[in-house]
Amino acid sequence: MKETMVESEVTYTVEVAGKFYIIEHVPARVCKETGEQYFSPDTVERIQALLKSNKQPDKMIQTPVYEFA
């Protein structure tokens, strides 16, 4: 299968130490067939630096949580 990649901006969500972080407008290459997201090394470094910084978030949201049981 040939994968077709497109440049896009995505929303990246990650859980660190029980806290969820959402980073919007992250540049990525996205596979049109699978939706898999690929980030450049520079982008990954910037995400990691942002998560380690004490920068205040641009906004806060409330998120409902459900248990799948």
Cα radius of gyration in angstroms? 15 Å
Q: Oligomer, anyone?
A: single chain
CATH fold annotation: Ubiquitin-like (UB roll)
Distance between the termini: 36 Å
Beta strand count:
3
Shape label: globular
> What is the domain tally?
1
For the largest beta-sheet, the strand count, sense and barrel status come to: 3 strands, antiparallel
Strand order of the largest sheet: 1-2-3
Uncertain segments: none
Q: Provide the helix percentage.
A: 10-25%
Reading off the top of the CATH hierarchy, the class is best stated as Alpha Beta
Structure description:
The chain is of the alpha+beta class and about 70 residues long. The chain has a single domain, classed as Roll (Ubiquitin-like (UB roll)). The chain has one helix at about 40-50, and strands at about 5-15, 20-30, 35-40. About 0% of the residues are buried.
List the helices and strands and how they pair.
Blueprint: E1 5-16, E2 19-31, E3 37-38, H1 41-52
Antiparallel strand pairs: 1-2, 2-3
Summary, kept brief:
This protein has one helix at residues 41-52; strands at residues 5-16, 19-31, 37-38.
